[in-house]
Design goal:
Radius of gyration: 13 Å
Distance between the termini: 41 Å
Strand content: over 45%
Number of strands: 11
Order of helices and strands: EEEEEEEEEEE
Helix content: under 10%
Largest sheet: 7 strands, mixed
Mean pLDDT: 96
Structural class: mainly beta
Shape: globular
Length: about 120
Amino acid sequence: QVQVVESGGGSVQAGGSLRLSCTASGLTFAAYSMGWFRQAPGKEREAVASISWTGSTVDYSDSVKDRFTISRDNAKKMIYLQMNSLKPEDTAIYYCAADRNYYRFPISSDNPTWGQGTQVTVSS
């Protein structure tokens, strides 16, 4: 059974930084694309960033490009989301997700394995 667990959320003032971490178990980690999604109150879940199984290819939503960086360490079975220059509109629950199919990029939002989510709150 695949399990995904996030950590690292919290509260920060606008302009600050946070780093989210995520680990996945129950799968051959190095064969699966991973991603970060977020859901703000009253809004639909949206993709934030994806990273291919090797880490060589990444993709970002326009709203976070040049501010967020996704990375992974396959030896540790971890992915990270470094969030800089945070804005109040980045406030959301952030979810880590593992793709259901190996060697596919970007991660599909249709039915990945989701983590439980971690709250990020940015105050102005």
